[in-house]
Amino acid sequence: MIVAESKPIKELLEMVKDFKKILVVGCKGCVTVCNVGGAKEVAILASTIRISGKKEGLDVVVGEHTLERQCDPEYINELKDVVGEYDAVISIACGVGPQFLSERYPDTRVFPGVNTKFMGGAVEHGVWSERCAGCGTCVVHNFGGLCPIARCSKSLLNGPCGGSSSGKCEISKDVECIWDTIVLKMMEQDRLDELIEFQAPKSWTTARDGGPRKMIREELVK
Amino acid sequence: MSEHKAGSNLEKVLSAGHFAFTGECGPPQGANVPHLIEKANHLKGCVDAVNVTDNQTAVVRMSSWAASLILLEQGLEPNFQMVCRDRNRLAIQSDILGVYSMGIRNMLCLSGDHQSFGNHPESKNVFDIDSMQLIHTVKTMRDEGKFLNGSDVDVAPKLFIGAASNPFAEPFDFRVYRLAKKISAGADFIQTQCIYNMEKFREFMKRAVDMGLHEKCYILAGVTPMKSVGMALYMSKQVPGMDVPQSLVKRLRGAGKGKVAEEGIKFALEQIEEFKEMEGVAGVHLMAIEWEHKVPEIAERAGMLPRPIV
Amino acid sequence: MDDFKPQIVAFCCTNCASSAANVSHGMKKALPDNIKIIQVPCTGRIETLHLLKPFEEGADGVYVAGCQADSCRYISGITKAAKRVAQVKDILEGISIEPERIDVFHLSAGKGQEFVEVADRMVNTVKGLGPILTA
Predict the structure, then answer these.
(1) Does C25 fall in a domain?
(2) Looking at the predicted structure, is the pLDDT value of residue B1 above 50?
(3) Do C97 and A10 count as a contact with CB atoms less than 8 A apart?
(4) If you measure CA to CA, which chain C residue comes closest to A44?
């Protein structure tokens, strides 16, 4: 799933300070799962903006709406009769949401309410960790099912580097050295010969380095 | 290891069977050429080659290639270093051609410390290729006369390829295999991370010798003299992949006020004596960072002088 | 400032806090009249939004009264509530409202005096801070 983090409220208030009618739009997809952009969070953010407005003596009206997803035009369309009543929209979906909203409603000022961070999953309740960097050429099977591109701070394919210590990455004790895990796992599985095999330089053409990407399913295109 | 690959002084010293002795010099955090020359000149005549670091610990300094050229002008032989953190494969191959064209003959291929350690932590990191792939790149350009994409290099760069090895990083059991991998990829010489845990290093060398790695590649043992107890504590706690035994810290403490640096040098000299006799060790790499003026004394006391002329 | 009577909303669990309220009632200790009590089966049931809404409706302060952490009838209810109160403190700080306007208290069923003390304390704190409106 896509994992995002709420923007600090100070930053958000600064973004919308000139607007009197604000619509907060959430998403029932990934951001609901990581508790930053679902219906609950829409209500919390809306209430927060109202309390702030009241405190400043401003006449702020805040609407609330949660879409099934903000990455499909048919859902974005649902706002067509409502969006005109507001000066500004805060989307707390991932980075796709504010853009789809901006494209569909070009006359509306759209603001991102969260910072989209990575593709990952829950490792414990309340904690999400990065797993995939979207490099476009998945080869996790070569590394014991683990991804060094996303999970090694240096994206090494022939790791570990000399900074790996006690299973932790040199950059922080909170970051696992994925190469330590890969090596130990593969050595245990008696796959040392695979570890010694030279991994050639990666082609980054399928990653974001190659330019903005599209995925097309020909059989579905009209 | 018969005919020379690059013909550098370091290569000639090693292939002639001498115990090599290399040093290190960090470029300045500015264009302070006189200071660089002053530091480097301490090493003149004391070492076979001088490592010139590349934005070490991700702190911006004069580029390694420029500082290496300055050292060359001064009559020293540089070990040009390149990290994978700051350059993509285009810049890498381009710089390899550039440095060779200007007279550089040794190149050390490193991953590079993560930029979060340094003074520009907000920068993007590159890591288009890793150190293993960098070694392979230099070897391919040198021996096959080809770029990474398979097209021809019109005049091949003949560089003596170096790499680093950290016997103390984890997982320990894998380190000797990673060393083997670097040698297969094309490393001609290796410099290890500075050693303090002699027992662990002996074990590492035993495994390396068992695998015959010392016959395919020259292994130089890294030595950094401890200047103070503070330095020993800092290195044991703050530097990743560093193994400083408590016994050494205790020894330094016991030396008494004002005598710690001398004790540190004594330890280093004992290490060098053992390395001279240790099977598989072809030389020593002395990293007396910001202590370059001590190198002539250490070289003398370690019996490294005069350096062989080949 | 002396005539400012802060409006406080108090969320109390039916277990500890309400028992304490009964004891205090029996002891004839009165609760200030500007406190509105909302009884909940367990403070763990209180959502972050429930804690914000009173401020939206004009309250000057909010507090949660529940069990001690090791004697919550539903084990972790009060612990969850305390985390949500902390979250709201952060939100208030973010919008330049004093985080002292919301708090969480751990009461024992038998100590009725505590129940009144806590209420008084909250009223005094909020009184000292004044009304929220800056304009």
Answers:
(1) yes
(2) no
(3) no
(4) C49
Q: Which fold has domain A2-117?
A: Rossmann fold (3.40.50)
The answer to whether the CB atoms of C94 and A57 lie below 8 A apart is no
Give the pLDDT band (50/70/90) at residue A43: very high
Residues of chain A in contact with residue B127, where contact means CB-CB under 8 angstroms, are 154-156
Query: Is there a domain that residue B307 lies in?
Result: no
Q: Where are the beta strands (DSSP E) in chain A?
A: 2-6, 21-27, 61-67, 88-91, 109-112, 114-124, 127-132, 168-169, 172-176
Residue B102's SS3 state is coil
Q: How far apart are CA B225 and CA C94, in angstroms?
A: 51
- B176 to chain A: closest CA residue: A196
Residue B4 lies in a domain: no
Q: Which residues of C touch A56 (CB under 8 A)?
A: 134-135
SS3 B214: helix
Q: How far is A56 from chain C (nearest CA, A)?
A: 6
Per residue in A186-201, pLDDT (tens digit) is 999 999 999 999 999 9
pLDDT value at residue B2? 55
**Chain A residue with Cα closest to B111:** A161
Mean pLDDT of chain A: 96
Question: For A74, left (φ over 0), alpha (ψ -120 to 50), or beta?
Answer: alpha
User: What residues of chain C lie within 8 A of the CB of A13, using their CB?
Assistant: 95
Spell out the domain ranges in chain A. Answer: 2-117, 133-208
What is the span of the domain harbouring residue C104? 8-129
Checking ipTM against 0.85, whether it exceeds it is yes
Full residue range of the structural domain in which residue B218 is found: 9-301
Question: Among A171, A198, A199, whose Cβ lies nearest the Cβ of B116?
Answer: A171
For chain C, residues with pLDDT lower than 50 are none
How far apart CA A144 and CA B16 sit, in angstroms, is: 44
Closest C-alpha among B31, B32, B30, B27 to residue B50: B27
- Has residue C43 been placed in a domain? yes
Count of the separate structural domains present in chain B: 1
Q: What is the CATH number of the domain that holds B251?
A: 3.20.20.220
- In tens, the pLDDT along B142-194 reads 999 999 999 999 999 999 999 999 999 888 899 999 999 999 999 999 999 99
**pLDDT tens-place string over residues C89-106:** 999 999 999 999 999 999
**Structure letter (DSSP) for residue B211:** T
Residue C92 lies in a domain: yes
CA of A69 vs chain C CAs: smallest distance (Å): 23
User: Residues of B with CB below 8 A from A171's CB?
Assistant: 114, 116-117
By Cβ distance, the residue of C49, C95, C132 closest to A44 is C49
* Count of the separate structural domains present in chain C: 1
